[in-house]
Amino acid sequence: MLKKTFALSAKGARDVFWAIILTALHNLSVMLPTVLLLMLVAEMLGRFLGTQARDLSLLFYWSTALLLLLVIYWVYRFTYRKTYVSAYEESANTRITLAEQIRKLPLSYFGSKDLSDLTSTLMDDTATVEHTLATSVAELFGGIISSAVILLTLFFFDWRMGLALFICLPVSMLILLLSRRLSSSSNWKNRRAKLSVSEGLQEYLENMKVVQSSPQKETYRLGLEDRIRKVVRTSMIYELVMGVFISGAYNTLRVGLGLVIVTGSYLIIHGEISLITYLLFLFVAARVYDPFTTLFFKMGEFFYSLVSASRIREVCDFPVQQGEPEVRLDTYDITFEHVSFAYNEENVINDVSFTARQGEITALVGPSGCGKSTLSKLAARFWDVNCGRILIGGRDIGSIEPETLLSYVSIVFQDVVLFNDTIYNNIKIGKKDATRAEIMAAARTARCEEFIQKLPQGYDTVIGENGKTLSGGERQRLSIARALLKNAPIILLDEATASLDPENETLIQEAIGKLIKDKTVLIIAHRLRSVENCDQIIVLREGRIAETGRHRELMDLNGLYRHLVELQRASAAWEVGAVRQV
Ligand SMILES: Nc1ncnc2c1ncn2[C@@H]1O[C@H](COP(=O)(O)OP(=O)(O)OP(=O)(O)O)[C@@H](O)[C@H]1O
Predict the structure, then answer these.
(1) From the CB of 364, is ligand 1 less than 6 Å away?
(2) CA of 112 to the centre of ligand 1 (A)
(3) More confident call, 61 vs 136
(4) Where does the record place the ABC transmembrane type-1 domain (predicted)?
(5) Of 116, 353, 407, 581, which is least surrounded by CB within 10 A?
(6) Is the pLDDT of residue 581 over 50?
(7) pLDDT tens digits, 72-118
(8) Which among 494, 492, 462, 457 is positioned nearest to 476, based on CA atoms?
(9) Is the shortest distance between the CB of 168 and ligand 1 below 6 Å?
(10) pLDDT at 572
């Protein structure tokens, strides 16, 4: 149950189990000095009342007390290890498991989740669960076990006093359980408000330049301020609800002490219990509630961490894309068979069928939003198709593990992803065992050398977050170098030359020309001039194939393709100065 509730690993669940047992033992062991003290008091009273010999040997008490101290020390040592150290280890494991799981999640998952939401699960939720595991879980369950043992023992001494002592415990527990039910919605509201602030702050920082130059910046700032104030409001409501219940539970528990005094006094007056039994219950009553009172004040945190744990579970339980890892592909035709696909409800790809053949260049063209990038991403299994299938070398890619599939694919997309690392390592991602000579050769072919040589540490220059110290063209050339190094049999190019000046564009096209020999190339290019020599051009309109053929054939068809080509020619003749003449 704990494993599921807190999304623990098998080892984590075992550690928590032992932490609970050890905490119970620790609670019991700290009760033993009380028992020893009572024995001493009983003996002293006996001597005082003359019922025992006058000589009092303290040796037994000293040696037992020493032994008890040692027992308490050792139990505490193990308890500490099992609770705190294990909690930190477990949260590190959870983060690694989450990172691994996130790596395997289909892109559709990221479409429905904000990045700051996932970061918050990775960092904040795991930290919250870690804190609860370290400070509350063992205390709560260990406290329940030790109290049950003490209860049984005390019932053995006197069931009426035992009842007086413990009658309030289940009542206060019930109050706490009720508080969980009633605080749950304010807890979730509070969590959502916090997420909305982190999303807003992330957006604010990312779009700082736009915000600063916008006349709406005051509105934007006020919106953010509003979100932050909402966190204060929801936190206060949550704390208020929890505060009322926790103090209710705490005071109910405290009534138990009063009940022991009243019941004990009554029974002593009627001669039904001895003074020692009365004292025993008083001592125990003063101590037995300790774990619970500490715990009650942590209950708000405890329930809060259950929300965190359920958010972790949600990521961990999300189905990952399945497929065989050990697949060997020998031929690389990409075949789309009646493929339809929707990001949400409405299809953006409708019944598309074509084959991009090995050794040929297949171009996807069409107006903006017609589904070119989507088709290209479906071929790399970033998403799974809703209808139909995509085959590579005759094999349905739905049966190949995404990582295995991607080892056959080089991708150069518009949105280049670079790491805050050296130029060298950014290219090396294409092939993990590449030599320096191979990396430099790829950089040379992708025309990266001239700008790399101008950098202070050449290949060893760190390029900042997502390569922010480089120009758009330089970033794109780096990603082409990466693809060249990988030398995969399938190449997906999305506007690969979008950020290059005409001189570099020609050079890159030559490099790509060398790279694509005998490979399957699926290219998306908005500038139709660059696809004139392609072996096959697929013209898309609103997610459907409108025309297919080579450039000449499509021009002769006098359809959408020709229309797009003419539009582009007209826009190429457009000049900034022309605006003034209008
Ligand atoms: N992650 C997404 N979630 C929801 N809808 C999306 C997503 N990505 C794209 N779309 C929608 O799918 C449709 C096709 O988008 P796609 O990016 O494939 O078009 P495109 O032809 O490549 O466009 P462009 O030429 O402007 O890059 C568009 O209507 C777009 O709004």
Answers:
(1) no
(2) 15
(3) 136
(4) 17-302
(5) 581
(6) no
(7) 788 777 777 777 777 788 888 888 888 888 888 877 677 667 777 78
(8) 494
(9) no
(10) 65
Q: Is the CB of 29 under 6 A from ligand 1?
A: no
Whether 508 contacts 523, CB under 8 Å = no
- Asked if residue 383 has pLDDT above 80, the reply is yes
Q: Is the pLDDT of residue 210 over 50?
A: yes
Q: Considering the chain, tell me which residue range(s) the CATH 3.40.50.300 domain(s) occupy.
A: 334-408+488-581
Which residue intervals of the chain bear CATH 1.20.1560.10?
A: 2-317
| 247-251, 414-418, 577-581: least confidently modelled range | 577-581
Cα-to-centroid distance, 72 and ligand 1 (Å): 65
Give residue-wise pLDDT tens across range 538-555.
999 999 999 999 999 999
CA gyration radius, the chain = 36
Q: What is the pLDDT of residue 580?
A: 46
What is the chain's mean pLDDT, rounded?
A: 82
Q: Is the CB of 370 under 6 A from ligand 1?
A: yes
Would you say the ipTM is above 0.85? Answer: yes
Task: Identify any residues that bridge with 523 across adjacent strands, giving them in sequence order.
Answer: 363, 493
The response to whether residue 498 sits with its C-beta less than 6 Å from ligand 1 reads no
Question: Ligand 1: does its nearest atom lie under 6 Å from the Cβ of 369?
Answer: yes
Does ligand 1 lie within 6 Å of residue 373's CB atom? yes
Q: Whose CA is nearest to atom 30 of ligand 1?
A: 369
Tokens, residue 29: 């062991």
Is the pLDDT score of 377 beyond 80?
yes
Nearest residue (CA) to ligand 1, atom 26? 368
Look up residue 237 and give its two tokens.
């409501």
More confident residue, 436 or 240: 436
Please provide the CATH number assigned to the domain covering 2-317.
1.20.1560.10
Distance from the CA of 368 to the center of ligand 1, in angstroms? 8
Distances (CA, A) of 428 to 370, 413, 435: 34, 18, 9
The letter for the amino acid at 406 is L
Residue 143 Cβ contacting ligand 1 at under 6 Å: no
β-strand 490-494 against 409-412: which pairing, if any? parallel
Separation of alpha carbons 169 and 176, rounded Å = 11
Task: Name, in order, each residue with C-beta under 8 angstroms of 575's C-beta and a sequence gap of 6 or more.
Answer: none
**Are the C-beta atoms of 497 and 505 separated by less than 8 Å?**
yes
Q: Are 497 and 506 in contact (CB under 8 A)?
A: no
Closest CA to 172 of 243, 256, 238: 256
Q: Is ligand 1 within 6 A of the CB of residue 372?
A: yes
As a whole number of Å, the end-to-end CA separation of the chain is 74
Dist. CA 246–CA 176, nearest whole Å: 7
- Spatial separation of the C-alpha atoms in residues 322 and 315, rounded to whole Å: 16
Backbone angles phi, psi at 365, to 5 degrees: -130, 165
Q: Given CA atoms 124, 125, 129, 130 in this order, what sign does their dihedral have?
A: negative
The yes-or-no verdict on residue 129 having pLDDT over 50 is: yes
Query: What is the bridge-based pairing of β-strands 409-412 and 361-365?
Result: unpaired
- The CA distance from 140 to 147, in Å, is 11
Place of tokens 């409108």: 546
Fold adopted by 334-408+488-581: Rossmann fold (3.40.50)
DSSP 333-382: -EEEEEEEEESSSSEEEEEEEEEE-TTSEEEEE-STTSSHHHHHHHHTTS
Q: What is the pLDDT of residues 459-500, one digit of tens each?
A: 999 888 777 788 877 888 888 888 888 989 999 987 655 556
